[in-house]
Amino acid sequence: MLVGFASALTPTAMFNGTPVSGIAPLTVTFTDQSTGNPAGWAWYFGDENYTAPWTQLNASAGWSVRRSHSIVVMPDGSIVLMGGRAGESTFRNDVWRSMNNGVTWVRVNATPGWSARYSHSSVVMPDGSIILMGGMTGVLMNDVWRSTDNGTTWTEITPSAEWSARAHHSTVVLPDGSIVLMGGTESDAYMNDVWRSTDNGTTWTEMTRSAGWSPRAAHSSVVLQDGSIVLMGGLDASGNRNDVWRSTDNGTTWTRMTPGARWSARQALSSVAMPDGSIVLMGGSLSVSSFENDVWRSMDNGATWTEIPNAGWSARCYHTSVAMPDGSIVLVGGGSNISDKNDVWRFTTPGSSAQNPVHTYTIPGTYQVSLQAYNASSYDSTRKAGYITVYLTDDGGSDSGGDIPPPIPPNPTTTLTGTTINETVNVGGGSAVNRAEVTGTNLGKNLVVTAFPRNSLPSNIALTQMTVYQYISLVSSTIPGVVDQVILEFSVPQSWLTEHGFTAGDIVMMHYENGQWQELDTRYVSQKSGNVFYRATTPGFSYFAIVYRKDGTDMGAVTPVATTAPTLVAVLKAPVQEAPTTAEITREKTPAVPPAPVTQSSGGIPMTTIIVGTTGAIATVISTVLIRRWWIRKQNPTLFRKNDRY
């Protein structure tokens, strides 16, 4: 969830949907269960394409033209704008506020205590206060200021923070309420240090003196719901950058998500984190005379990016943007080599704003569903990854027959609701995938995973610009279970790699999710008998593709999924009282048949009736087992022999 803002009326977003799985087209009814009296809802069903047009809200806002300013969105959905620069020598320190998404603005302070400046940063804290840091006033600054009344009045927290004076840095607020400041420029030097404050900017601790990313300025950063920080682009000593980095430990260590994103290298860009977990990146400067108004979106923490239609606003840099409680993006001001701006634009992204929407999924896949609920006081969001599974139909793309298993009679004695379990199973179907470790809830007994090789995919989703080793459609018997994560083991022949001039480190698995292809974390395991073995982690089932991407494989050593022969049945015992949400798993080779009852009359029921009823129950159980095992053997002969493991 987002950082909870202090208020008696703070919403807590909650929802459910029904059904959560089925064959395309699948119509799902979603029900809002949020508390805290929300007045509005922003739903993301996982198949939004973010192609709505931008709307100009104001061609000339009340504040003067500027760039290198800062803006924040407040708990109540108002926007506060601070400072900035016009031309080469005019600096601002006025503060403006909009209560209607940027349509109109009111100046709340013409001359706050902090000096006129640009390329500073500002954030909103969990208590709704604003913290403003550093920037350029003619000299570089490292002072910190705080406002507790929407920017009207300000108090200096410290005139000289522990980090050196700088401009063009970036800052984020983590879910725990701490502030993280990254990089920037100090005179003619670029920096890649990272600092953190846990007391509203009063004192700072250096997390690292030299982060993994190169020293830089005019980059952009966001914080995601899981508390990780994603840093993008900027300018370093070698020029503009388009690399993306992520930290999951408050900025101490960093992992490079991609050395070169699809968007061109740039500085002075802006970005926002959306309620559905995606990142949207906008505009920036390619050179002193080249600017962009392109818009890009990433659904995987910045690893891969999809371009969405260019904005209606003119190309620019040093603009600002915020994600609003209703799921829209508001972009403010900015500049170019021609002129600075004071226009305001808005971009609407949710799939629905209804309280209880109905949505139809038309493309098979696994979909994350997100809800952001808001009112006049605050807002909150929640996400359910892999919540909706839309199964494939037999479209003739597989040589293995239909992709949907026959219905299996339910076992009324098995209760799995709310219990997370882990199952490792062999995978049949004849594809490159041979094993799967599935984590989820309501997985049921006799979990079966089948991966069918497919000769082709529908033309509207085929990977036309990549070398594909194999397309795969992956299904399981988890209806109506919810899959949280799957680790797939697969192999590629060394002969195929050699034929194409590829190495073992040039393979990745792609997953078709939320209406687009996502690159999975793919790791090298070993080589044996002319095959190269890999592991890939995915949030669920649907279409997959094993493809070539230069140096795309993580070649670090990994531990394979458990090498013992997987079992076919998971029987849940009653949980112990001290830990009601954890179930112990006992494994059996075949389902146990209930013993026949004692042949005595009870309550006047004839003995013949008892015998007939018992015989019928046993027959039902046996037929269920036989149907299940017939289907398992038919689709997954691999399950009944030991794998040739690497």
Brief summary of the model shown:
The chain has 646 residues and is mainly beta. It has 3 domains: 15-45 and 353-387, Immunoglobulins (Immunoglobulin-like, Sandwich), CATH 2.60.40; 69-347, Neuraminidase; 392-646, no CATH class.
Describe the structure.
It is a single chain. The chain has 646 residues and is mainly β. It folds into 3 domains: 15-45 and 353-387, Immunoglobulins (Immunoglobulin-like), CATH 2.60.40; 69-347, 6 Propeller (Neuraminidase), CATH 2.120.10; 392-646, no CATH class. 6% of the residues lie in helices and 43% in strands. The chain is built from 2 helices and 43 strands. A 10-stranded mixed beta sheet has the order 38-37-41-35-34-32-33-36-40-39. It has a 4-stranded mixed beta sheet with strand order 2-31-30-4, with no helix packed on it. The chain has a 4-stranded antiparallel beta sheet with strand order 5-28-27-26, with no helix packed on it. The longest helix has 29 residues, at 607-635. The relative contact order is 0.12.
The end-to-end distance, rounded to whole angstroms, is: 41 Å
Helix content: under 10%
Integer average pLDDT? 83
Number of strands: 43
Which second-level CATH architecture of the largest domain applies?
A: 6 Propeller
Q: Report the principal-axis shape.
A: globular
Poorly predicted runs of 5 or more residues: 1-7, 394-417, 562-615, 617-646
Q: Bin the strand percentage.
A: 35-45%
Give me the CATH superfamily of the largest domain: Kelch-type beta propeller
Taking the sheet with the most strands, its summary is: 10 strands, mixed
So how many helices? 2
**Which CATH C-level class of the largest domain is it?**
Mainly Beta
Order of strands, main sheet, comes to: 38-37-41-35-34-32-33-36-40-39
Q: Taking Cα atoms only, what radius of gyration do you get, to the nearest Å?
A: 28 Å
* Class from helix and strand fractions: mainly beta
Q: How many domains in all?
A: 3
Could you tell me the CATH topology label of the largest domain.
Answer: Neuraminidase
